Amino acid sequence: MKRLTWVLAAALMLGACATGKPSEVDRTPSATGAVSEEEFKAMHTLRTDAAPARKGVEVTLPGGAKGYLSLPENAKGPLPGIIVIHEWWGLNEHVQHWTDRLAAEGYAALAVDLYGGKVAANPDEALALVKAVDADQATKTLLEAHAFLKGDPRIQAPRTGSIGWCFGGGWSLRTAMAVPELSAAVLYYGHPVTDAQQLSTIKAQVLGVFGTKDKSIPQETVRAFEKALDEAGVRSRILEYDADHAFANPSGGRYDERSAAAAWAETSAFLARTLKR
């Protein structure tokens, strides 16, 4: 089977955080999220039995893959849709929190499970799950997720996007490469593609969010990614924060609330501009 070619990069991605401001500031005012960073952080500090109840439901895609679907309260379609792609840990409670957070902002958010129901408890398990992913099957699952957002009668998304972190950040970019209809793709510290020819299939606008202290994705790689996007004619923005890998994950050891809040404000505004217009 065709396996992922970036497993070694994933081996360096171990958790979540630092402080800082983006190196480049958008000229468009940032939107404030329906769920603040402080509230989002609090969700992760509560015991599982005391945390807010999940608002989504499990769905099954045609190929058998499971997903977690969260819809805005009392909303009626058509709704902008977002494919949510988990970190290398799997589709865990943290990713469900993210999915609910996106739904609270007015999106039909569908978190896809690329691990067949498995969730890692430690980095060794996470790396083993990454290695077991078949790239062709994962792409098929993401295509099915996109079709679900477009065709489900509750959603009928006129515009779609993708977002992912770490392992999922790389797959968010690859979703844009595989789905020309996508309008937006956000990757948080996902290992990027630096070949302009491969990126040339992207029609979506791309937002890349990286930490300057992230040793798994050096700044030279980010610069090469930025250059390749430009050469491919992809509309894009790259934001960098004085933070480590996985700085936006409150459940991890590298979480940086200030950088995470700033990045989310930019992400929220980007998604609103590209998917709600």
Overall CATH class: Alpha Beta
Overall domain count: 1
Tally the helices: 9
CATH topology: Rossmann fold
Order of helices and strands: HHEEEHEHHEHEHEHEH
Please give the share of residues in helix.
Answer: 25-40%
Q: Tell me the CATH architecture.
A: 3-Layer(aba) Sandwich
Overall 3D form? globular
Task: Report what the structure shows.
- The protein is an alpha/beta fold.
- It has a single domain, classed as 3-Layer(aba) Sandwich (Rossmann fold).
- Helices cover 36% and strands 16% of the residues.
- It is built from 9 helices and 8 strands.
- It has helices at residues 7-10, 37-45, 93-104, 123-132, 135-151, 167-178, 196-199, 219-231, 257-275; strands spanning 57-60, 66-70, 81-85, 108-112, 160-165, 184-188, 205-211, 236-241.
- The protein has an 8-stranded mixed sheet, sandwiched between helices.
- The chain starts with 6 loop residues before the first helix and ends with a helix.
Q: Topology of this structure?
A:
Layout: H1 7-10, H2 37-45, E1 57-60, E2 66-70, E3 81-85, H3 93-104, E4 108-112, H4 123-132, H5 135-151, E5 160-165, H6 167-178, E6 184-188, H7 196-199, E7 205-211, H8 219-231, E8 236-241, H9 257-275
Parallel strand pairs: 3-4, 3-5, 5-6, 6-7, 7-8
Antiparallel strand pairs: 1-2, 2-4
